[in-house]
Structures are given as C-alpha cells and as structure tokens.
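Changelog-linked ticket: dinuclear copper ion example.
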Amino acid sequence: MPLQFRLIGTLLTFAALLAAQPMHAVGNIFRPLATPARLVSELSILTLVICAAVFLIVAALLAYAVIRFGYREGDSRSEPPQVYGSNQVEIAWTVVPILIVFVLAMSTARITSAVQDQRIPKDAVNVTVMAHQWWWEFRYPDLKIVTANELHVPLSSDAQRKLTYLTLKSADVAHGFWVPQLAGKTDVIPNRTNTMWIDPREAGVYLGNCSEYCGTQHAKMELRVIVDSPEDFDKWVAQQQQAAPAAESRENQGAFLASACIACHTVSGTPARGRSGPDLTHLMSRQTIASTEVPNNATTLRDWIKDPQRLKPGNKMPTIKLSDTQLDRMVAYLTTLH
Ligand code: CUA
C-alpha cells in the first residue's frame, strides 16, 4: 500500500479511537474544566489581549511611520529637523506602561490568592499523591483506599460543589503533577509537602503527565483523572474498600505468592505486602497498566510481567525468570483481582 494511504489509515484509526473514548485530550488548554484551571486560563487571556493590543498599536504606528515618512524619489538627502522634548509624549509613554503592569500584577495576585486561599470544606475528598519513579500512587486516607495511576474523584457542580484536596509528596526525586484541564502544575518535591485542589465540572477521563524531568521514564509517567458522577464515585469507593476477591484457584494464587513480585506489591489479605510498587488488590478495576501506557487485560499484563523493560526501558520493575506455566497461572490469578 502506498505510504500516504497507510498514513491516512493510521489517522482514521486514531480519530476513531479518540471518538470512542470520552477523553479530555491534553491539547485543549482553552477549555478549562475546573476552577483553578479556569482562573489561570482567564488570566492568560487577559494578558494575551493586553499584549496583542500593545503589539497592534506599536506595529500600526511603525508601519504608518515607515510608509508615510519613508524616503521618496526627489526628497532632500539632508537630515530632517530634530525635535527634542515633549512633556505630553513623555508622560504618556511612562504612565500607560505603568498602568498596564499594575493591572497585570493585580490580576495575577488576585487569581493566585483565589486559588491558594480557597477554604477546603470538611466534605472534600482527601487524596495523598505519592510520586514514584515512574508512577503515581493515590492514597485516600479517610476512605482507606490505595490505588495507582488512575485517580478517581467526584464530579463537582453548582448544585453540589465537591472539592478534591490533593497532598503531594515524592518517594524519591522531584516530579510535577499536571492535569492541564484541571489546574496548573504543582511540583512534587522530596521531603516537602505541597497541596492543591480541583473541582472538575465534567465527568470523563482527563489526561495528565509528570511535568518535571525525573529520569528515564519521565515522559511516560502519565496519569488519568477519572471524574465520576457522585453516585459512580460512591460505587467505586465501596468497591475499592472491599477485601481482595477470594482466590478462585489456590494453584494460581500460589504461583503469584511464591514469586518475587510480593516484595514490591500488595494484595490485601495475602502475604503480598510490598510497598515499592503499585497496590494490586483491585488491579482489574483499572483501565490501564504501566502508568496508563497500555490497556489493562490478560495479554498486556502477561507481556508486561514477562518483560517490563521492553515496553518501558529503564523502569524499576525487574524482569523475573518465569516458566510459561508460572506466568499463565500468575496472570490467571491477577485477572481475578476486580
Ligand atoms: Cu516524574 Cu517526571
């Protein structure tokens, strides 16, 4: 097939994929869907409008001067009369820029304090975001839930305002938490706690990424914020609070518990209590694995465990030598963890 047809085919497949998922693409920075992002967006638009007006006025005056007073055939070659000093002009080009800077500084201060001084209501959902090389851990201390890479939060509306308050911490190096349509970037720094809040106004999936270079897999340290209607959020909470499903096959569970995986991963109610990797108690309730890199199903899970370095070179999940039977049993067990 000629290259251009293949390209068109790829583009069409991509468009179909995008249309199929209710996903808020990272791209549209002009469509903020939570208060902090909306405030930042309004400030940017104000700044852009003022700068555009200054640019247009300066460019128009310059163009006028060049066209109207440029050298023409037959003009005298001598220097034009030199004009010096005009109080009106001096005052105008001093006062106007000062006013512009004042307006921009005041608007920035107002927006910054509106975001930072937001009172956090008692019914806000508290989440501790723990950044790791190269994945995100989400802990809900009040709800006793631990999950990874997919942050579920409730929808906020005018009728029922619901804030999610994030406490950001790092387990290793500096990272940055950034979901463009919900709020500005917040650095996640070791030995320091930063905070932020969001109140998403539309249900769906929002894409985010680490915004601070943190090593090999930085570019793929992605996350999803899944905004649920209040009812769906309650359902999700109830489901996550349950203990891990009972093993359907002792043999399959045994394959997992006998592996080195349990040194880094937790499945509640089993001897697997590792903390350095994502909690797997309700693994199958997540849409994706490997920091949202691939969809979560038996095939991708098997490939991922078999050779984690192939999909994301340099990541910290070691390759463990496993026979095909062991691998099959392990995947059969993990796929029961709903
Ligand atoms: Cu974490 Cu970049």
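Closing comment: Example verified and attached. The pocket of dinuclear copper ion is lined by residues 131, 134, 175, 210, 212-214, 218, 221 (CB under 6 Å). The radius of gyration is 28 Å.
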